């Protein structure tokens, strides 16, 4: 009987250790990409590492570089923030940060060749455009503000003025929301740097440098988004992209190391 008790206890302890040593696997793959400074976008075959004025297209499986784009006098792009691929085109949020007054545009590229094929300019609008996404037959944009004064410019508004704005297909404003205080506290003194809609109908956003993704929901009433959950991931904030080909998979960047990180959202 004593031998059976010892065997039972040993088995139980080993099982407990095995469980303790198997945390949920968040990081799936990582790739070197010198353009991984501001954001990453992803489609069914490739990911797009985004820098201020350059983009690199990479094979999604091997990490092989396929195409590249660099700003020029004809396309004087200064500060790309994040991107999304919609119907074969890469749409990138762009602003004149850190200049004032804030001006913003959506810069459009052919996803196959990375040729710059168009833009939509907001001009002076509600802040610096940091996020653009297409969801539910509408465009969704985040316009950021920063509590950390840029060059001590008195015209800067604090980060609490950051907002999510919904537009129709012709970029006509339909509605707008602000972020909840819990998320604004995590953004401070910066702002929302990335985001996109998941297949679950939830909005996922990131700040400037924390390894966190905030799951948000439109409110039933009022103008403040609802925070549902915070995910800890091995990224350093900035622009993210949800992979609509793999449920629960999101791409982010490790800015200091210039790497693209393929991660799994977990419980």
Structural key phrases:
267 residues, Neuraminidase, mainly beta, 20 strands, 2 helices, 45% strand, disordered N terminus
Can you put this structure into words, describing what you see?
By secondary structure, this protein is mainly β. The protein has a single domain, classed as TolB, C-terminal domain (Neuraminidase). It has two helices and 20 strands. It is globular and about 45 Å long.
Describe the protein's topology.
Blueprint: H1 2-20, E1 27-32, E2 39-42, E3 46-50, E4 54-59, E5 65-70, E6 80-86, E7 89-95, E8 103-110, E9 116-124, E10 128-135, E11 138-144, E12 163-167, E13 173-178, H2 181-187, E14 194-197, E15 203-206, E16 212-217, E17 226-232, E18 241-242, E19 249-254, E20 259-264
Antiparallel strand pairs: 1-20, 2-3, 3-4, 4-5, 6-7, 7-8, 8-9, 10-11, 11-12, 12-13, 14-15, 15-16, 16-17, 18-19, 19-20
Short description:
By secondary structure, the protein is mainly beta. The chain has helices at residues 2-20, 181-187, and strands at residues 27-32, 39-42, 46-50, 54-59, 65-70, 80-86, 89-95, 103-110, 116-124, 128-135, 138-144, 163-167, 173-178, 194-197, 203-206, 212-217, 226-232, 241-242, 249-254, 259-264.
Number of helices: 2
Distance between the termini: 41 Å
Roughly how much helix do the residues carry, as a percent range?
under 10%
- What is the strand arrangement across the widest sheet? 1-20-19-18
Mean pLDDT: 89
Question: Can you tell me the number of structural domains?
Answer: 1
pLDDT below 50 for ≥5 consecutive residues: which ranges?
A: 1-24
The CATH fourth-level homologous superfamily: TolB, C-terminal domain
Structural class, judged by helices and strands? mainly beta
Portion in beta strands? 35-45%
User: In CATH terms, what is the fold-level topology?
Assistant: Neuraminidase
Query: What profile does the largest beta sheet have?
Result: 4 strands, antiparallel
Order of helices and strands: HEEEEEEEEEEEEEHEEEEEEE
What general outline do the C-alpha atoms trace? globular
Rg calculated over all Cα atoms: 21 Å
- Write down the CATH class: Mainly Beta
